[in-house]
């Protein structure tokens, strides 16, 4: 999958831009505040319906403009597709694929698989479990077609269960819900475990490439103790759950534990090393996706050079080049990226939202 063209209207400080893109590396070079991250956010938004830093549409629509509009042309091995997306200040979204309306955000995500590496992305390692769950679920979403509907059912059932916890005096009142919920939770747990099992060797190998001095260990935690049926957990936890009006254990508590010598990576490694672990996770996920689907992800890498020494930048660049995917990289000056520019790459200079 590659973007051959993108048009951006009224997106943060970018009033209008129309870019024809390289299907290899696209470098976006500009000073602080010139609009580099905004350009990456516009691309991200085409695949997610929202920006990665700002949830409120009012923040991403250009000041004094009623709406933002994005358009892109996507090439895959079989066909060319177009995506159009607009968002108003009242949070009304229109998604058009090949000119037709009525699509959902999941349709965008299927069409435009994106791996994002940003300075904020350290959350994946240093933030709460939700960041790592969403990493695992990205893979489940793209590799197991049944995952989305299982997930939607689970969300609905948990909502009903948690509401019911407030009113029920004995466990039998919850039993009909739990009979429906338990197999879905276990299925989700199994899909996640399966995905992790497939991707862990690749993560470990990539980490070894980037940080040969450390032996990374990855472990998936399903959200409740192993070997115990989830239905038994729900029954056993009833009194406690009732007390807090919330289901305390389950797939909504799943996590990914990354350790070196039994120490969590976030407690041991430096910022630069953590950045490499984060890159290893994203790259492995993207490479596994390509291997399984024959399609490639788009990589968005904000502030490529930050936290990394020259040697590590070279390692990362080499790995990205070998992924044979479309990559967008931002940098504050060209010197940071000169060593990696190839003849099929494109460099865009951005100044106060104007791209040349
Ligand atoms: N809604 C908006 N309308 C117009 N300009 C905006 C809006 N939101 C942010 N900006 C401006 O966009 C500029 C670009 O931000 P950003 O893309 O983060 O820059 P960079 O990544 O190049 O450092 C900032 O200087 C900011 O003031
Ligand atoms: Mg930036």
TrEMBL record:
Give the family per the record.
Belongs to the RecF family.
List keywords of the entry alphabetically.
ATP-binding, Cytoplasm, DNA damage, DNA repair, DNA replication, DNA-binding, Nucleotide-binding, SOS response
Starting at the broadest rank, the lineage of the source organism is: Bacteria, Pseudomonadati, Pseudomonadota, Gammaproteobacteria, Orbales
What residues does ATP bind to? 30-37
Provide the primary localization. Answer: cytoplasm
Task: Show the Gene3D superfamilies listed in the entry.
Answer: P-loop containing nucleotide triphosphate hydrolases (3.40.50.300), RecF/RecN/SMC, N-terminal domain (1.20.1050.90)
> What GO cellular component term, any one, is given?
cytoplasm
**Molecular function terms, GO-annotated:** ATP binding; single-stranded DNA binding
| Function as written in the Swiss-Prot or TrEMBL entry | The RecF protein is involved in DNA metabolism; it is required for DNA replication and normal SOS inducibility. RecF binds preferentially to single-stranded, linear DNA. It also seems to bind ATP.
Q: Where is the RecF/RecN/SMC N-terminal domain?
A: 3-354
Q: Which GO terms describe its biological process?
A: DNA replication; DNA synthesis involved in DNA repair; double-strand break repair; SOS response
Specify the protein name. Answer: DNA replication and repair protein RecF
Q: Which domain of life is it from?
A: Bacteria
What InterPro entries does the annotation carry?
DNA-binding_RecF (IPR001238), DNA-binding_RecF_CS (IPR018078), P-loop_NTPase (IPR027417), RecF/RecN/SMC_N (IPR003395), RecF_2 (IPR042174)
Protein location: Cytoplasm
Q: Which Pfam families match?
A: SMC_N
Q: Which organism is it from?
A: Gilliamella apicola
């Amino acid at each position: 999958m590659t973007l051959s063209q993108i048009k951006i209207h009224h997106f943060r400080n970018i009033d209008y831009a129309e870019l024809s893109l390289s299907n290899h590396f696209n470098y976006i070079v500009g000073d602080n505040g010139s609009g580099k991250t905004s350009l990456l956010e516009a691309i991200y938004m085409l695949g997610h319906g929202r920006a990665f830093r700002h949830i409120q549409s009012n923040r991403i629509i250009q000041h004094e403009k009623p709406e933002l509009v994005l358009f892109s042309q996507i090439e895959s091995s079989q066909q060319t597709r177009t995506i159009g997306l607009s968002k108003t200040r009242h949070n009304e979204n229109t998604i058009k694929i090949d000119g037709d309306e009525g699509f959902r955000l999941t349709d965008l995500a299927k069409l435009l698989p994106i791996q994002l590496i940003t300075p904020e992305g350290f959350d994946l390692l240093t933030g709460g479990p939700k960041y790592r769950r969403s990493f695992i679920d990205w893979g489940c979403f793209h590799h197991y077609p049944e995952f989305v509907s299982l997930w939607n059912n689970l969300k609905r059932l948990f909502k009903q269960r948690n509401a019911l916890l407030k009113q029920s005096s004995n466990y039998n009142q919850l039993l009909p819900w739990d009979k429906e919920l338990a197999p879905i939770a276990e299925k989700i747990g199994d899909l996640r475990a399966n995905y992790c099992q497939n991707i862990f060797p690749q993560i470990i190998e990539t980490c070894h490439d980037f940080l040969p001095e450390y032996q990374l260990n990855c472990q998936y935690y399903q959200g409740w103790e192993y070997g115990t049926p989830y239905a038994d957990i729900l029954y056993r936890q009833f009194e406690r759950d009732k007390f807090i009006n919330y289901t305390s254990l389950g797939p909504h508590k799943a996590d990914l534990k990354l350790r070196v010598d039994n120490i969590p990576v976030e407690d041991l490694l430096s910022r630069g090393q953590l950045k490499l672990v984060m890159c290893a996770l994203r790259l492995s996920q993207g490479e596994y996706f390509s291997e399984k689907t024959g399609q490639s992800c788009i990589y968005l890498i904000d502030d490529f050079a930050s936290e990394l020494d020259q040697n590590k930048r070279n390692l990362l660049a080499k790995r990205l080049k070998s992924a044979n995917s479309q990559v967008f990289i931002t940098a504050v000056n060209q010197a940071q990226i000169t060593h990696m520019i190839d003849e099929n790459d494109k460099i865009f200079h951005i100044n106060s939202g104007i791209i040349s």
